[in-house]
Amino acid sequence: MADLVLEPNIADPDGFYAELIAVHDGLDDAASAALNARLILLLANHVGDRVVLRAALDEARRCASG
Fold first, then answer.
1. pLDDT tens-digit profile of 12-48?
2. What is the rounded distance in angstroms from the CA atom of residue 66 to the CA atom of residue 19?
3. How far apart are CA 11 and CA 25, in angstroms?
4. Residue ranges of the alpha helices (H) in the chain?
5. CA–CA distance, 41 with 43 (Å, rounded to integer)
6. In whole angstroms, what is the distance from residue 30 CA to residue 36 CA?
7. How far apart are CA 27 and CA 6, in angstroms?
């Protein structure tokens, strides 16, 4: 069982962010939201560990609560 990694862990994070923004280029809000949902499900499937996924959900919600 792995722990959720919260420290920076992406090579070239600025480059990845630019790619993430670019993939949304030209999409309306609904298509952009659908793309985000597909991306989340693809990455969740790749992670596969329900404990880590639950921790990610909890952390995302905590951050959204302000």
1. 999 999 999 999 999 999 999 999 999 999 999 999 9
2. 27
3. 23
4. 13-23, 29-47, 50-64
5. 5
6. 10
7. 29
Looking at this protein, which amino acid is placed at residue 27? Answer: L
Give the Å distances, CA to CA, from 53 to 2, 25, 30, 58. 10, 28, 24, 9
27-36 pLDDT, tens per residue?
Answer: 999 999 999 9
The CA angle 36-64-3, to the nearest 5 degrees, is: 75
Is a pLDDT exceeding 80 seen at residue 7? yes
Domain boundaries, the chain: 28-66
At residue 33, what is the residue type? A
Query: In whole angstroms, what is the distance from residue 46 CA to residue 42 CA?
Result: 6
